[in-house]
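Limitations

Structures in this collection are predictions, not experimental determinations, and the ligand pose is part of the prediction. Treat each record accordingly. The example that follows, with FE2/S2 (inorganic) cluster as the small molecule, is included so readers can see exactly what is and is not provided: the inputs are given verbatim, and the output is the predicted complex.
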Amino acid sequence: MNAIIIDDVAPLLEEIEGRTWWRACSAGAVPDDEGLKLGTLPPAAVFTQDDRFFCLDDTCTHDTYSLAEGWVEDGTVECTLHLAKFDLRTGAPLRPPATAPVAVHPVTVVDGAVYVALPTTYLIKEETA
Ligand code: FES
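Predicted complex:
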């Protein structure tokens, strides 16, 4: 698997206890107002809106549906299965039927690549793009 960070980028990324920075994808791989599911376990996804990037767990907390398939607008992502809505910055549920937040993860862009700091317990199955 080729998703580990490269040495010249590592000094630019703040160390966060219990997390490891991974190169998730190129910034251009995430269409504006959409999500990109990453090859991690549990699944995480990168979202972008107005040139800002967000990383959340991909699975809706109401049921097991991919939030990367959802609609992104006004700083939120809406699950397409039953229309729960989550805050992209905090993961807080903003509309039922979801009542539990989704986990959010630090994200940054360096030299056109998106890096996410995932818990060390997450498995990286494959590089996305
Ligand atoms: S699975 Fe997302 S709202 Fe039901």
